[in-house]
Amino acid sequence: MKKNFQPHHLLLKVAIAIPLFTAFDSSVLAQTTSQSPFGNSKSILLSQSSAEDLILQATALLNKQRYKEATVVFDKLVGLYPNIAELWAGRGVALAGQKLYQEATTSFDKALQIKPDMAEAWNGRGISLRGLNRYQEAIDAFDKSLQIQPNQASTLSFRGSALIELDRFEEAFTSYGKSLQIQPDYTDAWDGISDSLYRQKRFQDLIELGDKATQAKPNLAGAWTARGRGLAGLKRHDEAIAAYDKALQIKPDYATVLTSKGRALRRLKRLPEALVLFDKAIQVSPSLFDAFYGRGYVLDELKRYEEALKAYDRALSLNKNDSPLFHNRGITLANLKLYPQAIATYDKAIQVNKYYSELVELSAADSWYARGVSLYAMRRYQDAVTSFDKAIALRSNFADAIKARQVAQKWLKS
């Protein structure tokens, strides 16, 4: 399950806005304005009330996720007050919200040069590094933040997400567990702890974890979700849907649960219902990768190929390192008889070589096979045989690939 970060939630309301108001006392303003490149012109320098107005404006823009506009305001603020760490941190949040993670990292670094013990800046730096796929550096930044503020549930949860990307599932489980000890209803941490167990195929453990938690506190939406994912992993999809429904009764706008329920409905071939769930998840969370991916998959199964391709392309804009997405996008292109594009997309799936997905079980062998099928359709029989050979080398009992290779070889001999 891919998490889409919304870093403004972690920094703004308390961590930046309140310290900024206290930072703008007369002594700070006097020191800052005396160093201004505009000299002593009172007509140009911001008053304290004007600065606070700008901060309120930037905070409001971030809370509305209008990151580009917020960046403009923060650029103005750091230009006038370059020695206030909170301003640089706020700028980092605005940049991270635009997924400009390298620029965000630089801004957080500037904040930390001024204020090395600013936990929120370390946290923002970790989020930005994670966005750059620099997972160990992200973990190190989260650790720095936790040294300063040990009881930050969100930081522990983000730390867990970086550990999962490095396949360090047990450490991730521990980090998420600590997050839930601090905030038992924190759904992001529940999603993460579920990921750590699901990826290890510890489905029964997931069910037991969910059962234990809901017996103690029946209104924990994340715990019902954990139970549902465990049941889904065991292919008990009707029971999984019942658990997801419990979670949605508690939290109707729980986007990841809407997506999980959509996946379960797809497994049961209840495709129109699944599509409704994916669409609802997108309404709640417009940048949720799994929802767009699921939507594309269902639309392909409904033979609505052009719509499926659009959904896959939107998912691709959110995550370019997911082999199942590339693979299934290739299937849709092949269904549209766009075979050269399909082959290029299968090649990308194989190159990325990250085949984890809760939507469908795939491996590189499947992509080599699908690639061969498209090559066969183009009458490139020798190339098709080569692709089928690759698929069989990875899965020796791959019956469809063995049969397809035999047919392609007959055409080579005819």
Provide a brief overview of the structure.
With 414 residues, the protein is mainly α. 76% of the residues lie in helices and 0% in strands.
Walk me through the structure.
Helix 8 (135-148) runs antiparallel to helix 9 (153-165) and helix 21 (364-377) packs parallel to helix 23 (399-413). The protein has helices spanning 8-23, 26-34, 48-63, 67-80, 85-97, 101-114, 119-131, 135-148, 153-165, 169-182, 187-198, 203-216, 221-233, 237-250, 255-267, 271-284, 289-301, 305-318, 323-335, 339-352, 364-377, 381-394, 399-413. It is mainly alpha-helical. The protein has 23 helices and no strands. The chain is globular, with a radius of gyration of 25 Å. The two termini are 48 Å apart. The longest helix is centred in the first third of the chain and has 16 residues, at 8-23.
